[in-house]
Amino acid sequence: xxxxxxxxxxxxxxxxxxxxxxxxxxxxxxxxxxxxxxxxxxxxxxxxxxxxxxxxxxxxxxxxxxxxxxxxxxxxxxxxxxxxxxxxxxxxxxxxxxxxxxxxxxxxxxxxxxxxxxxxxxxxxxxxxxxxxxxxxxxxxxxxxxxxxxxxxxxxxxxxxxxxxxxxxxxxxxxxxxxxxxxxxxxxxxxxxxxxxxxxxxxxxxxxxxxxxxxxxxxxxxx
Length: 223
Prior knowledge:
The chain is of the alpha/beta class. It contains seven helices and eleven strands. It has a seven-stranded mixed β-sheet, sandwiched between helices. Strands 3-4 form a two-stranded parallel sheet. A two-stranded antiparallel ribbon has the order 6-7. 40% of the residues are buried. It is found in: Cytoplasm. It is an enzyme of class 6 (ligase). Its EC number is 6.3.3.3.
């Protein structure tokens, strides 16, 4: 499997906007003519169908996923809202990374140009007691889109995440700054300025992208 066919979308923390960012990327890539689909390997805190996949599809409604892809988009769904390893323990349904790999391969076999794989929480979230999300990504060589924001502490969390990715030689394709909720404070303004400067110095091949909730617009520039 070509690891570049999968873009893993992670965030500096939970609730930072990964789901929204994934939907925006999905829409952008489809508008460029790519046949692309999203995957949420592990979803906690809901039942029936992944709520995050619903958001992805709502943000990119002009090209609905084929029904034959649906069984492979979410490998594990748990009711209890917790870290994947804990939710799996509580429901006595452990996560098998090979099952996720199999579902990813099935989607690729259906002819998709790329899969946007949204993780659960941040990079250090455990999928199993022995396997961190970060290690899952590293073992497969997936590039990462890292979602950040302008809330207090974001610079620290972003740099720690970037360092962890660099230490495991995981390529950072892009850093996505989420403007929602809108914040015009000096903290948010400085966060953008500092992170752009840091990427230009330390991750010059990484794309900087900003997304805004109200307009669904995004602007990108190579750094």
